Amino acid sequence: MDRSREQAAPDGTAAVSSLARLFESVVEGERDVSPRPLSVSQLRAVVALDRHDGVNLRELAEQLGSTPPLVSRLCDRLEAVGFLERLPSARSRRELTLRLSDRGRAYLQDLRARRRDRVELLLTKMSPAGRTALAAGLAEYQALAEAAGDPPDLHR
Fold first, then answer.
1. What's the pTM?
2. In 3D, which of 83, 92, 97 has the Cα closest to residue 54?
3. CA dist., res. 48 & res. 78, Å (int)
4. Residue in 22, 14, 16 with CA at minimum distance from that of residue 126
């Protein structure tokens, strides 16, 4: 297949699609860095709880784009592996507050360190020009996300 013609598409759709596939392959490689015992859904919940400490079940379900019954079962599994604590809410006796346990925070910290190490290794293999281009692209992404009111969390 001639990839040079993909880059020449006037609207850039082929180039964007090609770049998306490349980026996806890099992200897929990150799965090897994620130690078990969490599924992708559970990991999303752990990250959401880290960002929004002390939410209730309904709020977590909204953040995950899911339903409270599904998120409740997800929380059951996180609690079973010792990553989640359900505490009485200060707002209501009928609510529970969801928080990451120390074990859950340690897991996430270790995962982030592993991913950071992998990205740093990949960056050392890139040329200086490639790193400069990547930095420019990520800065543009950050600016676009902030303009859209959805700033990326770059401090993790």
1. 0.70
2. 97
3. 13
4. 22
